[in-house]
């Protein structure tokens, strides 16, 4: 059998947030109800191959986003047939599929040549895998035993990045052109950051919980200054960063406790005599995300500042948005996808006026694991500045940049 997101929000802003959360809730409830039935079936003494195949297919396509894979299940043994080299993906496949009830073994078949060997221990958790070569068929078989234990320093992330969020930890370099701004015109913006998963637990029914660490530096430079002065740098760290994903991979949640501090560049202070604001705060942030089909994602959430400086900084922020990810165009060994995303934040500090961030362009990804990718994006922003020292100023800019996620 073969199978392939203190004060009453004003009008539109509140409505948009409610619509997104409302969209997530009933759909998630319906899925949960169906999930209970499926899990109940899984609790039976015998789990059917059809049950395993259905959920394994969803995980392969939605969670791992693997392409050109043939899947077969027989007597609890999942066999995956690939048309390309997938050595670096084996641990991810094993971790994702082995949590399904009834799985006895996972067999990966690669149509092509790969150096065979005896039992090897690979990956940070030293999991043994047996590699066998069938020269006559031109295939390589990798037999992986199931795993349902805590994993430390796992690969990948349960909550996928928000492409249009100006403050998402990742590596990027962007040119920005400010519109009608009396202080700046041409700006270089960079970010240096990443999400570091520390531990991941697999629960009954295929649910996953992850504890991690997020850290990043966001900086802007005045490209029109003689020495391209550093203007602002925000230091951002989140711990713990707790994420969750259901067994289907279409619903995920993220809870973060984070600190941000903001600093002006020395050269900028000297030439502008700017008054520095001691902006520093700790906040809690909750985000809910729902995939609709394989190309559309919506999300929504809120943030509350727990401790702050200056003391009159307002606490609440509501965030929501959507992303579209088109089908992959194979360009061996990479694939290309069209991507478009919009992120909206309504801040109490800004009288709930929307801060709108739009990004669109192309995503270059590894064919065997699309979550490792580089995006080339055009962008547009209008609203309160995300750059800490200028948080009380409204800006507008367009730009183009490169963003990497690994």
Total DSSP E strands: 21
How much helical structure, as a percent, in the residues? 10-25%
Structural class: alpha+beta
The first-to-last residue Cα distance is 34 Å
CATH class of the largest domain, please?
Answer: Mainly Beta
**Number of structural domains:** 2
The CATH architecture of the largest domain comes to Beta Barrel
The low-confidence parts are: 1-45, 113-138
What string, H for helix and E for strand, traces the elements in order? EHHEEHEEEEEEEEEEHEEEEEEEE
CATH level 3 topology of the largest domain: Outer membrane phospholipase (ompla), Chain C
Adjacency order of strands in the biggest sheet? 9-10-11-12-13-14-15-16-18-19-20-21
Strand residue percentage: over 45%
Average pLDDT figure: 80
Instruction: Please summarize the sheet with the most strands.
Output: 12 strands, antiparallel, barrel
């Amino acid at each position: 059998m073969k199978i392939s997101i203190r004060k009453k929000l004003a009008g539109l802003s509140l409505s948009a947030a409610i619509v997104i959360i409302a969209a997530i809730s009933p759909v998630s409830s319906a899925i949960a109800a169906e999930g209970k039935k499926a899990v109940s079936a899984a609790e039976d003494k015998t789990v059917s191959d059809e049950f395993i195949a259905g959920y394994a297919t969803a995980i392969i396509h939605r969670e791992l986003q693997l392409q050109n894979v043939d899947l077969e299940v027989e007597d609890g043994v999942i066999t995956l047939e690939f048309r390309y080299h997938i050595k670096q993906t084996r641990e991810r496949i094993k971790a994702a599929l082995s949590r399904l009830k009834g799985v006895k073994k996972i067999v990966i078949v690669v149509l092509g040549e790969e150096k065979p060997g005896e039992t090897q221990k690979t990956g940070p958790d030293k999991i043994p895998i047996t590699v066998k070569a069938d020269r006559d068929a031109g295939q390589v078989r990798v037999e992986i035993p199931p795993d349902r234990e805590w994993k430390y320093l796992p690969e990948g992330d349960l909550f996928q990045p928000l492409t249009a969020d100006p403050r998402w930890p990742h590596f990027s370099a962007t040119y920005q052109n400010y519109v009608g701004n009396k202080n700046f015109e041409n700006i270089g913006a960079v970010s240096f950051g990443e999400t570091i998963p520390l531990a991941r637990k697999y629960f009954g029914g295929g649910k996953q919980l992850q504890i991690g660490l997020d850290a990043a530096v966001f900086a802007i430079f005045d490209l029109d200054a003689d020495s391209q002065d550093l203007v602002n740098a925000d230091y951002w760290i989140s711990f713990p960063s707790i994420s969750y994903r259901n067994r289907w991979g279409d619903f995920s949640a993220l809870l973060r406790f984070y600190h941000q501090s903001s600093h002006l560049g020395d050269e900028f202070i000297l030439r502008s005599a700017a008054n520095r604001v001691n902006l520093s705060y700790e906040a809690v942030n909750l985000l809910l995300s729902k995939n609709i089909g394989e190309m559309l994602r919506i999300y929504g959430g809120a943030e509350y500042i727990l401790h702050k400086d200056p003391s009159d900084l307002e606490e609440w922020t509501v965030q929501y948005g959507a992303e579209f990810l088109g089908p992959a165009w194979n360009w061996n060994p990479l694939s290309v996808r069209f991507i478009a995303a919009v992120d909206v934040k309504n801040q109490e500090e800004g009288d709930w006026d929307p801060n709108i961030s739009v990004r669109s362009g192309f995503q270059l990804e590894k064919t065997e694991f699309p979550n490792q990718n580089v995006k080339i994006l055009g962008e547009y922003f209008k609203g309160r500045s995300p750059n800490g020292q200028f948080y009380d100023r409204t800006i507008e800019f367009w730009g183009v940049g490169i963003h990497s996620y690994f």
